[in-house]
Amino acid sequence: MSTASDTATKTTAPERSLNQRMDALQRANDIRSRRAQLKKDLKAGRVSIHSLLADPPEYLETAKVFDMLLAVPKYGRVKVNKVLTTCRISPSKTIGGLSERQRNELVASLRR
Questions:
Q1: For residues 107 and 83, is the Cβ–Cβ distance under 8 A?
Q2: CA 25 to CA 29: how far, in whole Å?
Q3: Which helix (H) or strand (E) holds 80?
Q4: CA of 88: how far to CAs of 28, 50, 81, 95, in Å?
Q5: Separation CA 102–CA 95 (nearest Å)
Q6: Taking residues 77-84, what's their average pLDDT?
Q7: Which terminus of the chain has fewer CB atoms gathered within 10 Å of its CB, N or C?
């Protein structure tokens, strides 16, 4: 005999077909490689962090702000934490999850 509480605790994610899993894996690998290239470009100075924060590409929406700032030259963990604290942004915040206020404060702070 099954009770309502038993069925509520047994919920799982829907089954995915092999094709769905392979498509998701391909998308994830593509995003990882694009982010890795972007970090190299940031480090080399070919891309501006200001433009990325102002208008991030879709593959950057789920990236952590902390990780992207670490790729900027002359920014280490201490300086990145200081900037994020000043702008009242959590280190675990994603670029897509930034509010307009946070985005504007962060860009202004990085331009100093």
A1: no
A2: 6
A3: helix 77-86
A4: 30, 18, 10, 14
A5: 10
A6: 96
A7: N
